[in-house]
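agent> Task received from the user: take the single chain below, predict its 3D structure, and emit structure tokens. No templates, no multimer pairing.
agent> Plan: (1) validate residues, (2) run structure prediction, (3) serialize to tokens, (4) report one or two observations.
agent> Step 1 OK, no nonstandard residues flagged.
tool_call: predict_structure(input=
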Amino acid sequence: MRFNLHNSVGHFPVSVDIFERLLPYDRAELIEELEDFEAIQKARVERLKEKYALEIERLQHKKVVFLGDSISSDNLGYRSSVTRAAGLEAYDATISGGVSSMLLHDARMLAERQRPDVVSIMVGSNDSVMIDGLHHVGIAEYERNLRQMVSWARTYGAAVLLFEIPPVIESRFEKHFSPNRKSQSNQNIQSYNRVLQKIAKENQIAVISNRWLANQPELFEPDGIHLSVEGQELFAEKWLIAASELFS
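)
tool_result: status=success, residues=248
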């Protein structure tokens, strides 16, 4: 159920009417489940407001474009939490399962039309996956795509938050996906993160490390790649700190 709260290319609204047609639950079960998710989100937002009042004050009503994959598209995740906690004017260009090339159109369109204060970028978990022995998106193309995103953000006056690709729990990933068809390793992820670091250095942008997630299985879902409810809350904290430093 939770993964149906992720935004796809179509960005379906979180709605009982939508889920009732897609999932094998009756209406009462869906309503109860969504109410539970809303309660989790509300409680998290209150904790963030209490713990990060100064950071939130700096970010109040800022315009933010979010570019990312399923870790960012989760409507129970950090993006929704920080948006609500800080009253952000948020523009969601995240796609569950998305790769960097899929985000380019929205990256440019939103930067040009909305003139955001911040463009938050965390993409590469899918680009760097090996499918039938080849990267889903090759590292040279990934670099070109990231350069475009950063360039457009800065052209239209936005500050850039650039996050490393998060690590995976390799043993879980291997069990969840067919290793002969789809595989991932932290060594592979680091090769893509080095591209991020190079682009950041050239543009004098800080790269926010996600290495704090390594070797903490409780912060991941059983598939070893998506963040758990606890992991998403901790990431929301990291996001608020990093974003607020842009305006300190």
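agent> Step 4: summary for the user.
Strands lie at 63-68, 89-94, 118-122, 130-131, 134-135, 159-163, 182-183, 207-208.
agent> Done.
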